[in-house]
């Protein structure tokens, strides 16, 4: 973690200006616009709905919101299939609505991060339409290839590449009379990054939104940007090697050596980072660039940059990939250590408990671990990402096959097994209150059904409770903005297999923070006398729903009462002790001298 929170920029005239690298210890809240708040009763969330709820987010304390794609799209993959990168989807509102949202967010001090989807567009985009017609400028904007025709005249795709959403990654185009590559849905043709015009067009998109004042981008599926150069294979795209004896329709049945994690990817990322940096001085803020790549840890780490180029913050998917509802204290420790020890020196860590592609955090880790996992996202150094609803412990409901919309689930064509990969449950509407449709919409239906527990798991109920996931989350966010969680030294401790402790101590003892998690239903009396830098007496500053202690309670370092599944945060009481000692000494001094 960088020692300084300020980036010093020397401007041309030679004066030194400090620019806030605001994201180094920020909370970024992911909004899935379709499901956050519907302002016009059509059952789909929209920009005005988000604007209406900005006070909620301000009160929660988040620093920035990341909006999943809000651009013009036929919604085959719910906005990750973009027709025009510079237009707002009419379902979500207008450009004027976006400008109004930006203005209001800026006024109240919340930054806006947009989703940037560089790998693919919609086939409805002007670029694709022109490419399909082989117009000279656009001819190579996408990955086109000839298929093969057998003796019976039957056509088959150029090779065995498989889509992330199953089946061939190639789709025949009847006008162009060639196949186009789509590593995701058929409605998401891959752009060709070996074409300089494509690279320039995509840079223009970044400039467009930066000029509107956005504070950064979450960049989608970046490790899919490049495919192997066919020139190296006699002008053909080679087959990928099957993992088992044969390749099947499943994405994991082949090794994606030619379609994923290619070396060229990193230079594009570094170029985009440099582009974002052009706005640092002008906007007096360093832009956030966070990249999405589900890949091996070493490949993730390469996104951070190298000795000569600055890179992005790669999403940390270690929790998602290695933690589950049965992980013990050692499991948590190794997940955290994996990131912290592999991260290049001086870079910023980040913590992700969920997103719109994963089972909700409470469903994946278990409802009893909601406070623990929220604590871990917020107590560790660096950026914390929260997917909407994690602050409430929202859970996934089963969504019937007949109502299933996610292309990843629909592509299974299997009414019995689709739910295993369906991302719809995590995308159901946000729960504001216990009114009809959970206060999300006042229309007559919602695009996905509202989860059945909305009457008890919602903002209004949890705000009113003395202890709730919401209140605990909010306390954690407030602590995150304090000195210990910004810059305190990180240490993790495992006590047996069920108790996990995180300390963030600074040279100013009174600021020290100690987070304690009980992963089991058993009660413990914890003694941390041996832990240096921790004062004898401690104050509870955040207490999860399962703790017997409450915020404001005092506890001795030698006798911490930890009820089953309790997640609590304690603060050193150094200040009070030193203060009391000084006061007693002053009284004694006056007494002795005046008596
Ligand atoms: C990752 C996005 O998060 C996901 O929702 C989408 O389906 C794929 N990328 C393709 O854009």
Tell me about this structure.
By secondary structure, this protein is an alpha/beta fold. The chain folds into 2 domains: 27-121 and 207-229 and 259-464, TIM Barrel, CATH 3.20.20.80; 122-190 and 230-258, Oligo-1,6-glucosidase, domain 2. The protein is 26% helix and 18% strand. It is built from 17 helices and 25 strands. It has an 8-stranded parallel sheet. Strands 18-19-20-25-22-23 form a 6-stranded antiparallel sheet. A 3-stranded antiparallel sheet has the order 8-12-11, with no helix packed on it. A hairpin with a 3-residue loop joins strand 18 (489-495) and strand 19. The longest helix has 21 residues, at 574-594. The chain is globular and about 80 Å long. It starts with 5 loop residues before the first strand and ends with a helix. Mean pLDDT is 94; it is low at 1-14 and 575-584. Residues 77, 80, 117, 184, 220-221, 292, 356-357 line the site of 1-deoxynojirimycin.
């Amino acid at each position: 973690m960088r020692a300084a929170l300020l980036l010093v920029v020397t401007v041309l005239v030679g004066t030194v200006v400090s620019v806030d690298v605001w994201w180094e210890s920020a909370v970024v809240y992911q909004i899935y616009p379709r499901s956050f708040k519907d302002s016009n009763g059509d059952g789909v969330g929209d920009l005005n709905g988000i604007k209406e709820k900005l006070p909620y987010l301000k009160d929660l304390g988040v620093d920035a919101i990341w909006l999943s794609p809000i651009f013009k799209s036929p919604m085959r993959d719910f906005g990750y299939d973009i027709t025009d990168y510079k237009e707002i989807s009419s379902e979500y509102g207008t450009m004027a609505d976006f400008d109004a949202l930006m203005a209001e967010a800026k006024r109240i001090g919340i930054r806006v991060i947009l989703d940037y989807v560089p790998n693919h567009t919609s086939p409805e985009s002007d670029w694709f339409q022109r490419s399909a017609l082989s117009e000279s400028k656009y001819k190579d904007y996408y990955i086109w290839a000839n298929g093969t025709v057998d003796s019976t005249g039957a056509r088959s795709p150029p090779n065995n590449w498989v889509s992330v959403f199953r089946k061939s990654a190639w789709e025949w185009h009847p006008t162009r009379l060639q196949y186009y590559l789509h590593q995701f849905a058929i409605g998401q043709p891959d752009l060709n990054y070996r074409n300089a015009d494509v690279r320039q067009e995509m840079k223009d998109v970044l400039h467009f939104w930066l000029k509107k004042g956005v504070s950064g981008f979450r960049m989608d599926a970046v490790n899919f940007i490049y495919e192997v150069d066919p020139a190296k294979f006699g002008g053909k795209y080679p087959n990928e090697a099957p993992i088992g004896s044969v390749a099947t329709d499943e994405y994991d049945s082949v090794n994606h050596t030619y379609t994923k994690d290619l070396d060229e990817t990193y230079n594009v990322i570094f170029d985009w980072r440099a582009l974002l940096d052009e706005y640092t001085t002008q906007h007096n803020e360093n832009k956030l660039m966070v990249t999405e790549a589900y890949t091996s840890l070493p490949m993730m780490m390469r996104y951070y940059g190298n000795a000569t180029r600055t890179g992005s913050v790669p999403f940390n998917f270690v929790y998602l990939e290695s933690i589950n509802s049965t992980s013990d204290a050692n499991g948590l420790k190794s997940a955290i250590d994996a990131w912290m020890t592999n991260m290049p020196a001086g870079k910023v860590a980040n913590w992700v408990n969920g997103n719109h592609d994963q089972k909700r955090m409470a469903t994946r880790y278990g409802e009893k671990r909601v406070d623990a996992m929220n604590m871990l996202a917020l107590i560790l150094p660096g950026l914390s990402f929260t997917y909407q609803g994690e602050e409430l412990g929202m859970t996934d409901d089963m969504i019937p096959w007949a109502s299933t919309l996610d292309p990843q689930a629909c592509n299974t064509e299997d009414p019995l097994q689709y739910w295993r990969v369906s991302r719809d449950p995590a995308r159901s509407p946000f729960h504001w209150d216990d009114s009809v449709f959970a206060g999300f919409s006042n229309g007559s239906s919602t695009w996905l059904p509202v989860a059945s527990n909305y009457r008890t798991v919602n903002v209004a109920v949890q705000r009113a409770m003395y202890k709730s996931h919401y209140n605990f989350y909010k306390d954690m966010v407030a602590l995150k903005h304090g000195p210990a969680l910004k810059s305190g030294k990180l240490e993790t401790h495992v006590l047996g297999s069920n108790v996990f402790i995180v300390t963030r101590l600074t040279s100013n003892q009174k600021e020290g923070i100690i987070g304690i998690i009980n992963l089991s239903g058993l009660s413990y009396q914890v003694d941390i006398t041996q832990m240096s830098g921790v004062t004898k007496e401690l104050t509870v500053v955040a207490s999860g729903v399962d703790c017997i202690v409450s915020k404001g309670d005092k506890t001795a370092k030698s006798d911490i009462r930890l009820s089953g599944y309790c997640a609590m945060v304690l603060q050193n009481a150094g200040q009070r002790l030193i203060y009391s000692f000084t006061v007693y000494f002053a009284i004694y001094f006056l007494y002795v001298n005046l008596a």
